[in-house]
Queue: 4 jobs
Job 1
Amino acid sequence: MRPAQAFAERIGLPVRDLDLLEQALVHSSWYHEHPDAADGHNERLEFLGDALVNLAISEALYTRHPGDDEGYLSARRAAIVSTTGLTRLAGRIDLGPSVLLGEGEAKRSGRRRPSLLASAFEAVAGALYLDLGYGPTRDWVVALARPELEAEAPIVALKSPKSRLQEATQRGSGERPSYRLVDAIGPDHEKSFRIEVWIDGQMLGRGEGPSRRAAETAAAAQALERMWSMDVRVQKATSDGSGKPDGSRMPDGDGA
């Protein structure tokens, strides 16, 4: 059985064009190593699928939440179609094992890399749209995203880590986070960025990702976690009478 056929059966859709679905599962790293074994990689389908997923999620949110304003709907959509959100959807269909990767990408655990899974999910959505049309593909995407579409999450939880970090630091010291590029390694099509985020002269978080934006997001998330952990320690120390720590001091930068 062809891998695309097995994948089609797993997602439970009446796929007709297995060649198109197969292309959606071809990462550029595999295609560069096997240029004669496929018609192409999945990046054009990813482009199409990105637009389809955004439209499907926008339509579902608009219908399900008639009382939400444009800002709230935008925040909810951003959370669902973010790299993290799409990776979650990809996990629900066990997409990783079906993606064809080059040898180097596979050795670097590419099948667990969020950006790769999110892109592959969009490519699959693009292939399904071309094969089955908008309605069935929209229904499939919406069904996978139902928990996020129906959740009544507070608006702050839907904001990106970078936005939350900036708001938190401006409420505190008034300083804006500074993101510093530490390293960028690998060839252009497989580059990995490493970023540090600094606030008030303290390094609060490190992040790594396939783009500067992804690495900055990971660094901001780590910084938020460290700030939250420090707040908990401060509250505990104050409540148990062990002394009143200096709550204005940021955690040391050497423990991230």
Job 2
Amino acid sequence: MDLNFTHEELAFRDEVRAFIEANVPAETRRKVLEGLEVSRDETVGWQQALYRHGWGGPNWPKEFGGTGWDPVRQYVFEEESAAGGAPRLLPFGLKMVGPVIMRFGNAAQQKRFLPRILSGEDWWAQGYSEPGAGSDLASLKTRAERRHDRYIVNGQKTWITLAHHANWIFCLVRTDPAVKKQSGISFLLIDMKSPGVTVRPITLLDGTHEVNEVWFEDVEVPVENLVGEENGGWTYAKFLLGHERTNIAGVGVSKRELARLRRIASEEKKDGKPLLFDPAFAAQVAQVEVELMALEITNLRVLAAEAERRAPGPEASLLKIKGTEIQQAISELMMHAAGPRAMRFRGSDGPGASPTAPAYAGRVGANYLNLRKTSIYGGSNEIQKNIIAQTILGL
């Protein structure tokens, strides 16, 4: 693989940088680069700006309204977006349900749902996990009973990220309890405004409201919102999880956070010298950087496979494991660098806030706590190691 960009790719990189500079407000950029929360409106506004420019689907083929970019351009866009302080693109529509609808949905579903993902009109949530079905997702119990032209859905989903912002949710539901558990699952698209849908917040350790419980009580879902075949949902779920795990790797974001770590370690002192000059600490930073470079190459290989319309294979599990380990390692080094100044949670006026903490150390503690989840969601890292052992090593 030639790791040097061509003149055309370098020109594209400059175009992306200029677009970000012109279309991401300075205050939004500041929030992203300092690890602060951005609002729903800021996130949607960025998606709408990309859509107006024809870049609403950076990883989508042209036939569905996407850019049709090759893997290198997708990589350049994601890296420059992270480095430039652009809000993250919501993965639930663009990188999860969108590809499922493209591959398994019918023409009417593609025409109805895909353009609204690109335009930012629809905010999707992922309805997979349940109180008794996390890593063992096939044990889910949310039921969908077919009654004429409707499914009646009853059950509970939990840890649903940003469901309080969403107007649609894609769900795995049990449509046949009498067969093998993987064989009786279907994939439904549910309007969050439907009667019987209730969203209840879950407050996290860092004091934020990011995830939710979602309850379904006799929720009516039209049969036309079934993706693919009834009881075929497990196949679609595995396809989606491959895309999710690739996205969790977060190479561009980790590179941005590594740069922030270096800034913090350059400001904080040990024995009168910047912490970054301490040999032991510098060695830890260098080790993370080496691992991130290796992850970057693997990510490019997966993107190349996706460009050829091949679903991510077991290498997506490698990306998920290593990507989340690197994210957590960087956040731990930030905590070490910022010391007691790090205990500043997202709510600047809430418990643990430190008004004397410098801007570069802002919310380090909250980010550290928040990133503990990454090795669990999308399939725990232990599950990913089992997948690798079975599919690659044949164990």
Job 3
Amino acid sequence: MAGITFGDGLKVAARVLTSRRRPLLAHLVITRYCNLECAYCHEYDKVSKPVAIAELLARVDALARLGTQIVTLTGGEPLSHPDHDAVVRRIRAHGMVATTITNGFLLTEKRIAGMNAAGLQELQISIDGVKPDAISKKTLKSLAGKLKLLAKHAQFHVNINSVLGISEERTRDALEVARNAKEMGFSHTVGVLHDAEGTLAPLSPSQRAVYNSLMAAGSPAHYVNYLMFQKNLMAGKPNAWHCRAGARYLYICEDGLVHYCSQQRGAPGIPLADYGEADIVREFNTPKACAPFCTVSCVHQASFLDAWRGPQRLAAA
């Protein structure tokens, strides 16, 4: 699978390091609707219409104007949007990296071919266990056929993500998910369940043991995130770091507003169309009160390259 190359990663890092005014990663919500109803998820509804394609393309253009490096399409379920691939094409036309996060249930050979043609570079699927139950249908059994289609046809990188903390019964399932992902040529990552405010869900001793095992076998970048953030959080300890949400990381909701992340909606709450360099500089230098116990790994990773810079000095909004 083609995906994001090492060279791509170096170019992105170089552009970010040479300017504090470039967002590294933006999550763009293209619909709040989801075809599933996972009991632990709070980032979807069953009634929203897809965001109009004209508005989405304008938002992609705005992200390009800001110098954004990576745009991830999310929801809800982004593959339920009829113009998903058109948004991917627009992202790629601007030279930005295009990725998407999906539950995988809407994948077909035709959909995969469309994403190949549009230039998608990475797709992530969350798989919560081996067999479906009342908590989640996103399991190896439910998605076996979809994973085979991806292994055969996808020209983009595929990452399988497991979430620990959903239930004790699912704990060892994460090991089976990781094994299957690697056998099919996919990468595997693991996260920890957080609540609507981004607070870590407590892990049992057995869950911690599985997490440590997966970390030891994972990618170096994922292990660094564990050492710098997750290890302290699991022990109930805060992390001292500079959150660059609103600057290096942007979360754009279905209404086109910029937020720190999906768990901190309302701040800064500025329309993306009006967001500019002054907003990025302000948020780059603004400490976030939620940072010490934040579990949102995408924000951790987007902020990591600036860890060496000086302290944030502006008053939090």
Job 4
Amino acid sequence: MGEVGLTPERNSTTISPADLSGGQKQRAVIARALILGHHDYWSWNEGVAMLDMSIRARVLQLMLDLKRAFGLTYLFITHDLALRS
């Protein structure tokens, strides 16, 4: 959980999804994929569409950091043409 920025880690497992913000929910999904060992190829369909701009930027930066750290490959599907690498 700490790898994706969810802190404190000890409380992250007892919080219900309704108690998480949009950015925290995205980070929880990312953590779950990391825990399950799905490191080869990730498909994101509108992965940051409902997040405000500051949170969106942080989640996208997290994705880039994890790409470098774990050698991930992404298929990123979005209607937001402003999102490009």
